[in-house]
Amino acid sequence: MEKWQRSLYQPNLPLGADGTKVTASKAHITLSKEAAKEGMVLLKNNESLLPFQAGTKLALFGKGSFDYVKGGGGSGDVTVAYTTNLYEGFKKLPEKVEVYEALSDYYRKEVEKQYEAGAEPGMTVEPAFPEETAKKARAYTDTAVICISRFSGEGWDRKSSYDKEMDESVQTDPLLEKAERIFPDGDFYLTKEESAMVEQVQQLFPKVAVVMNVGGMVDTDWFAENEKIQAVLMAWQGGMEGGSAAAELLCGVGSPSGKLSDTFAKKLEDYPSSETFHESVKYVDYKEDIYVGYRYFETIPGADKAVNYPFGYGLSYTTFECALVSAEEKQGVIRVRVNVTNTGKYPGKEVMQLYAQAPQGVLGKAKRVLAAFEKTRLLAQGETQLLTLEAPVAQLASYDDLGKIQKSAYVLEKGKYQFYLGTSVRETEQVFCFTMPEDTVTEQLTAKLVPTSLAERMLSDGSFEKLPQSEPNDPDYSAIKRVPREESDGFSPAVRALPGHQIWSQPYKKDAHIFMEVAEGKITLDEFVTQMTDEELAHILGGQPNTGVANTFGFGNMPEYGIPNIMTADGPAGLRIEKKCGVVTTAWPCATLLACTWNPDVLYQVGAAGAAEVKENNIAVWLTPAVNIHRSPLCGRNFEYYSEDPYLTGKMASAMVKGIQSKHIAATVKHFACNNKETNRKESDSRVSERAAREIYLKAFEIIVKEADPWCIMSSYNIVNGHRTSENRELLEDILRGEWNYQGMVTTDWWTSGEHYKEVKAGNDIKMACGFPESLLRAKEAGVLTREEMEICAKRILGLILKID
After folding, report:
1. What's the pLDDT score for residue 173?
2. How far apart are CA 74 and CA 380, in angstroms?
3. Max alpha carbon distance in the chain (Å)?
4. How many CA atoms within 13 Å lie on the side-chain side of 763?
5. Of 250, 461, 486, 500, which sits most exposed with the smallest number of CB within 10 A?
6. What CA–CA distance (Å, rounded) separates 614 from 608?
7. Element spanning 660, H or E
8. Percentage of the chain exceeding pLDDT 90
9. SS3 category, 680
10. What distance in Å separates the CA atoms of residue 431 and residue 436, rounded to the nearest whole number?
11. SS3 of 714, please?
12. Which N-terminal residues, if any, form the signal peptide (predicted)?
């Protein structure tokens, strides 16, 4: 097939080896289920209730057994042929378990009634407890399974019972109102109806298992120390086969091997971010600084007592023995080798986690920081595997943003560096220690993203230090007064008309070089771009209309130069196509579940398979992965993100990017950066210290850029320390391209509030879903924007297109 042939408006050509389509194929759906099984986390299994033995009879309680949530809303939603709920998952295993049908019939009908009335999965009310049917179910069996489901989505955040009064006008998603009606105290906790159901079930049944079908952190206090609930599976939002995945694990078709990618505290208010998360719609103060997630709970005095399930925790049906083979430092790398042996009765996988403890020094550190991890293959009973974990010493350096040792430098402070190996942040033993004789600068940078309004930040002892207040370092846009503001002064977004037939039959511009000449090496990209007029350049820097089944617009679209119209598509849970197109795709497990696999190989496979579906549908740019940090349980989009830890996020997402781009499809890493709240996301200012920004919120992006070379990065909607990210040259040019040497394209998020010419000057190459060419031309005429700046962005856009098949 000719280069870019798939970008043309034509019927989709199957990619399957046997001439069949790979989109929503049996192989992909099976992979989705297996990935879901690997990321589900067994939190509790007292008295070895699980796995259910063959012939076990079950009573399924809770609307969640039918009201299954495959994933979150917004860009993470996917149109599928079907979704398997927990009940259906059990029914596919008749040789393993039997289900009390009268009880299930009740919940099925109750959920169906709410769906018929317009409710969506996860946004239904727990029905009244069926007392008489429950008693009959108890006569049928002594074993109950409770399923709790939750939904959240893009554009709105989860609420809590102690939120201050807020300006609700900024919350535009109609689902928010429904959520507040169903969960008046917030969906972190059980509703009164759910609590009553749980209480009655545990009074009736001596054996109770719980399945949590959720996209993020929720209350675990009601089952953590509750002896009447013996088993809990954190099943997350497992994609279209999530119900089958959970049922199979509960029945012993595989052993759980997931590990938590977040800390589960006893109460919502135990998270340091909770109290002020909804304080204002205009800003968020990141006062906890670097002490996010386990860095807070394992460091701040007394915080450790507020944890039910620590970071990295997860049980298995089998047992493992870990024997240290060696631990050493060589050429600046810590290398730990360990033998892992399956000593139990079931096949299983184990994750070895290496944590570092740096000296507190004058900068202050988290008591534990994840430095490396490795997961075994599936080990049979008695089988052993040797794992090697490696962590560069420089990775442990701290950023000195105030000049306590050396300003704007990463520093390894003098003192002892201790390393702990284990199976969670708390189940570890010290395996190595070395001493740094003197303070050592590992990288000298310059101050960027300096806060202008953050008054204080947390220290390692739980106290706070005052931060110096800097003056905003705004670019000199004095000439901009001559450039009318977009939309409000008459500038409207514009796209070019689509050709009526294939691009190859369009007449090329007379005497012009065509783009294929660049692809074939006949001319340089510089030579190609130089021939374009200012007007043509201005259009290249904005999004272009949809073609085929695409619904998130594209870019390129200059048939007179042979430039194809390259399409983009959401999203983090699979290829999202408008329902009206009639194309169903594979819904993959949510990103949080994928992170809980702690297995980069799984992420690579999911990325490659998902990219094949993107490619088969004539789309070239996949708008995933999303790698913002789980700063607070209340972020409505946490299901789309990986973890509270930037290292785990970076490593797992790097594997996803590599898998996607192995198919010559562009991965788009988003949302750069500090987009940790959905409420008023286009105008909310994330006030964060430079140290926390670099060590926590930018770190995953840095890892991905350096290890996976993503072809595209998406800037975020929000503001960081007073500067809109899409217009922030310090972020996009100085850090991303200058410090990290990123060579790819940067796109805005869709319909940002930023002004197009400011975004171009900041290094944001393209404005999506479409640009403001008139604004760019007026800015150039006013001397605010140069032709060279436009050409630089155009070359990065065209450079991405050159990488596409």
Report:
1. 64
2. 41
3. 86
4. 21
5. 500
6. 10
7. helix 646-661
8. 84
9. coil
10. 17
11. strand
12. none
pLDDT at 650 over 60: yes
Q: How far apart are CA 42 and CA 44, in angstroms?
A: 6
Range with lowest mean pLDDT among 5-19, 255-269, 482-496, 562-576: 482-496
DSSP secondary structure string, 460-484?
TTS-EEE-PPPPP-----GGGGGSP
pLDDT bucket at 502, cuts 50 / 70 / 90: very low
Report yes or no: 679 and 276 within 8 Å, Cβ to Cβ: no
DSSP 406: S
Cβ–Cβ < 8 Å for 379, 355: no
Active site residue 18: no
What pLDDT does residue 478 have?
Answer: 54
Does the pLDDT of residue 507 top 60, yes or no?
A: yes
Domains and CATH numbers, the chain: 41-255 (3.40.50.1700), 314-449 (2.60.40.10)
- Among 1, 21, 4, residue whose Cα is nearest residue 583: 21
Query: Quick one: which H or E segment has residue 387?
Result: strand 384-392
Distance CA 186, CA 158 (A): 7
Count of residues making up the chain:
805
Round to whole Å and give the CA distance between 551 and 583: 12
Residue 536 has which token pair? 């043509």
Query: How far is residue 324 from each of residues 328, 366, 388, 422, 588, measured CA to CA in Å?
Result: 12, 25, 10, 10, 36
3-state secondary structure of 696: helix
50-102 pLDDT per residue, tens: 999 999 999 999 999 999 999 998 877 899 999 999 999 999 999 999 999 99
**Count of CB atoms situated within 10 Å of the CB of 206:** 11
- For residue 579, what pLDDT is reported? 80
Phi/psi at 89 (5° precision): -60, -45
Contact between 3 and 520 (Cβ < 8 Å): no
Kindly name the residue from 157, 400, 685, 749 that is annotated as catalytic: 749
This model's pTM is above 0.70: yes
Amino acid at 8: L
The Cα 706–Cα 693 span in angstroms is: 18
**Cβ contact 160:268 at 8 Å:** yes
* 127 burial type by CB count under 10 A (0-12 exposed, 13-18 middle, 19+ buried): middle
Contact 144, 201 (CB under 8 A): yes
3-state SS class at 373: strand
Query: Using the 8-state DSSP alphabet, how is residue 595 labeled?
Result: H
Structure-token pair, residue 586:
């594979």
Picking from 637, 618, 474, 632, the residue whose alpha carbon sits closest to that of residue 546 is 618
CB-based burial, 722-743: b 16+ in 10 Å, e otherwise:
bbbbbbbbbbbbbbbbbbeebe
Q: How far apart are CA 496 and CA 93, in angstroms?
A: 54
**Locate tokens 């660049």: which residue?**
518
Q: What pLDDT does 156 receive?
A: 80
